[in-house]
Amino acid sequence: MITGKTKIMGLIGDPVEHTISPFMHNAGFKYFDLDYAYVPFHVARENLKFAIEGARALDIKGLNVTIPHKIEVMKYLDVIHETAWLIGAVNTIRFADEVEGYNTDGLGAIRGIKELTPLKGRKVIILGAGGASRAISFQSVLSGAGQVVIANRTLEKALKLALNLKDNLNVDVKAVSLGEELEKELEDADILINTTPIGMYPNVDDKPLVTSDMMHEGLVVNDVIYNPLETGLLREARLAGAKTITGIKMLIYQGIESFKIWTGREPPLKVFEEALEDEIKKL
Ligand SMILES: NC(=O)c1ccc[n+]([C@@H]2O[C@H](COP(=O)([O-])OP(=O)(O)OC[C@H]3O[C@@H](n4cnc5c(N)ncnc54)[C@H](OP(=O)(O)O)[C@@H]3O)[C@@H](O)[C@H]2O)c1
């Protein structure tokens, strides 16, 4: 029941019609018996500044930020926390005395991976050099990865991200193109993360960038795509005997981290998982 005491959290993006985040957060509020409600708001690019000012005026307590506003929104915040600053994007805002920006995307993916393997000293290969790759590559290094390889269709973009990682975090990082160079790097890799949209619905039959013959049993493979849950890449990983992590883990854990920033409480994984179960079936 929404009353005059209910605190509002939400999501801003364009589009937001298909977001499944409200199911997670509203289930978390229910679990802790918090009088909060999570609402998606469709915000067009030209209205972003007004949306942040309006949220502050309306006493909204927290917002998630999604495509296309994650970078642009930084202009309208008072404080940007270190990881978000390094990544250069914000996906979580907390409205307190100041308007604070955080990034929980990378943390979300890494928490999922850490359930299966530690990151410390490991060799991580990331496919793609866009927004998700930036968040995950910075967080991998912050979580102790020993070496990071960025493999991308457009090599210049991979080089730019690699340089950025090196400049900021003084890490052993390499940029490679897809194909032979990537195949060679995979031989002694520990963790492979796909951040490209290859294999995402409706293009579920697209050939993955890495096939089973390029993988080995010791590899942990994470696809950040969650629709479908088992992508072509994860099927190939299974064939190779490698361990797999679906994209739902990143989605859930970035949500859990945002929830913690807003409420100071950590919902159990199963509360968010169960909240998404039915929604995932509908995707
Ligand atoms: N699970 C989650 O919670 C979560 C969170 C965030 C994002 N995601 C998913 O992550 C994916 C990427 O998002 P993003 O924001 O990082 O996108 P983005 O900034 O547009 O970057 C996409 C990257 O994929 C590469 N790419 C695209 N199509 C390709 C193709 N046909 N062949 C080879 N490479 C290709 C691009 O290469 P070029 O540089 O050559 O163009 C680029 O490096 C999306 O599928 C999104 O749904 C999931």
Q: Average pLDDT, to the nearest integer?
A: 97
Helix content: 25-40%
Q: What is the CATH architecture term of the largest domain? A: 3-Layer(aba) Sandwich
Topology as H/E string? Answer: EHEHEEHEEHEHEHEHEEHEHH
- The radius of gyration over CA amounts to 19 Å
- Report the uncertain regions: none
Order of strands across the main sheet: 2-1-3-5-6-4
CATH homolog superfamily of the largest domain: NAD(P)-binding Rossmann-like Domain
Q: How many structural domains?
A: 2
Bound molecules: NADP nicotinamide-adenine-dinucleotide phosphate
Query: In one word, what is the shape?
Result: globular
Tell me, what is the CATH class of the largest domain? Alpha Beta
Number of strands: 12
CATH topology of the largest domain: Rossmann fold
Strand proportion, as a percent range, falls in 15-25%
Helical/strand content category = alpha/beta
Biggest β-sheet: count, sense, barrel?
Answer: 6 strands, mixed
